[in-house]
Design a protein that fits this description.
The complex is a heterodimer. Chain A is an alpha+beta fold. Chain A contains four helices and two strands. Chain A has a two-stranded antiparallel ribbon with strand order 1-2. The N and C termini of chain A lie close together (9 Å). Chain B is mostly helical. In chain B, 82% of the residues lie in helices and 0% in strands. Chain B is built from 16 helices and no strands. In chain B, helix 8 runs antiparallel to helix 15. Classes of the chains: A alpha+beta, B mainly alpha.
């Protein structure tokens, strides 16, 4: 099993764009028992990755409940970093 | 995915971005404050219990042993106590499994390398310098962002603009100002050597800031700091203290002094406090750098050039009544000037102003 932060980034290899909810849904089976698997953690991880050029924003929308959904996608630099330092086989 | 253009989404997005930016800056500033508190409490710890004897007039040890072995031991105990806190916090948040998994990966190895450069090498140099020259070395070690910028240029071909060079010049001027007041004819010889050793700490942290910045892009900062403090603490106690003892001519000093320090209740309690603040000094530094970019993060953290002397004066001078922690006014002014220089190196004030305008 990958560390949670690695797994969050790796989701973007298969999902072209995704927001925090979609990432959580995709990782739920493996990580739902982990205490650190919380939406706040995932959102902060995504925003940090975006701040450092690993991810870029692909759009955002508000839902009927007043929640915000920010969608991200992997950048070329991000793909290079994942391939070089955290390949899926770690 | 289509971008919603409704006003509610735009307002929410602006609010979320603004909150994230403010949190990043707050975290980075708090890292500098935690660094000041860590400096004050480690100095206090190394003046309590058995350490009073070692740093007293008749320690029964050579000058080399007192200067290097004892100082490295202090750094090692502090980082080990900090690692204990880091493990407790990581366990409490359910991150211990990820900590072990990260250790086996390349970013984990990068963090270990950073821990050795920033820990046994830079932190030991910092503690030795602090013992030899007092809190006056703290602004010197705050040159690490300047060194980081230079290393970034040399190692990673990062841009080095006229603005950044101006900032480095301001930092060097500030260092000279401090030197002019503290290294006069009556200054002890150890103070000059202490200031030189402080540059080793600045160099080590400059490298650490560059390289660990990469590591925390992918590693959770609380896992990163657990790797850092555990590696640093153990490397100091298991490698550096025996090596220093060997150089001092008596390898048997290592277990004897380590055991005496670890079983000294009064100082260990204070080391628990200094280790606690050291944990946040480094973990918030990493987190701040990753949240708002290394440049702004390191600039905010660089405020420890002020917080270090400030908390040494507040904790040791005011609270515990120790004398000699007041700094000459010019040194305070130099610390502030150095902070301005560091800020200029790290951030274009015009860009920062425009960014804030955009977020208003």
């Amino acid at each position: 099993m990958l560390p949670l932060n690695y797994a969050i980034l790796h989701c973007y290899r298969t999902l072209e764009t995704a927001d925090a909810d979609q990432i959580m849904e995709s990782l739920k089976a493996d990580y739902e028992r982990s205490r650190s698997f919380r939406k706040k953690t995932v959102v902060e991880s995504l925003m940090t990755a975006k701040e450092n050029g690993i991810l870029e924003e692909a759009g955002y929308e508000a839902d009927a409940g007043g929640g915000l959904h920010v969608f991200y996608r992997l950048t070329d630099y991000g793909k290079e970093i994942l391939d070089k330092y955290i390949p899926i086989t770690v | 995915m289509t971008e919603s253009l409704n006003a509610n989404a735009v307002a929410l997005k602006r609010k979320v971005d603004s909150r994230f930016f403010r949190k990043g800056v707050t975290v980075a500033v708090m890292s500098g404050m935690a660094y000041g508190l860590y400096s004050a409490f480690i100095t206090y710890a190394m003046g309590a219990g058995i350490w009073t004897e070692w740093y007293g007039p008749n320690p029964g040890l050579t000058v080399f042993t007192v200067t290097f072995v004892i100082a490295t031991l202090g750094s090692g105990i502090n980082d080990t106590m900090s690692a204990v806190w880091a493990i407790i916090i990581a366990a409490g948040k359910g991150k211990l499994g990820d900590f072990l998994r990260c250790l086996k990966t390349k970013p984990g190895a990068v963090m270990v390398a950073c821990a050795i450069i920033g820990g046994p090498i830079a932190s030991a140099a910092y503690i030795i310098a602090l013992q030899m020259a007092g809190s006056i070395i703290i602004p010197i070690t705050a040159l690490c962002p300047a060194i980081g910028a230079l290393l970034g240029r040399i190692l990673f071909k990062q841009p080095l603009s006229a603005r950044m060079i101006a900032g480095i010049a301001i930092c060097l001027c500030a260092t000279t100002m401090i030197g002019s007041t503290q290294m006069g004819g009556d200054a002890p010889d150890t103070q000059i050597i202490g200031c030189l050793i402080a540059f080793i700490a600045a160099l080590g942290w400059g490298i650490e800031g560059c390289v660990a910045g990469f590591g925390t892009i992918v590693i959770d900062y609380e896992i990163g700091i657990t790797i850092r403090q555990l590696t640093s603490g153990l490397a100091n106690l298991i490698i550096m203290v025996p090596v220093m003892s060997l150089i001092a001519g008596n390898i048997a000093l290592s277990p004897r002094l380590t055991f005496a320090a670890l079983t000294d209740g009064p100082s260990m309690l204070i080391f628990a406090v200094s280790g606690f603040f050291a944990l946040f000094a480094y973990s918030l530094w990493y987190k701040g750098n990753s949240m708002c970019g290394a440049a702004l993060g390191m600039a905010c953290n660089g405020a420890y050039s002020f917080w270090g002397p400030f908390f040494c004066w507040l904790v040791l001078g005011v609270i515990f009544g120790q004398e000699g922690w007041n700094l000459a006014p010019i040194a305070w002014a130099a610390a502030i000037l150095m902070f301005i220089g560091i800020l200029l190196i790290a951030v274009n004030p015009l860009k920062l102003f425009r960014r804030n305008e955009g977020r208003a």
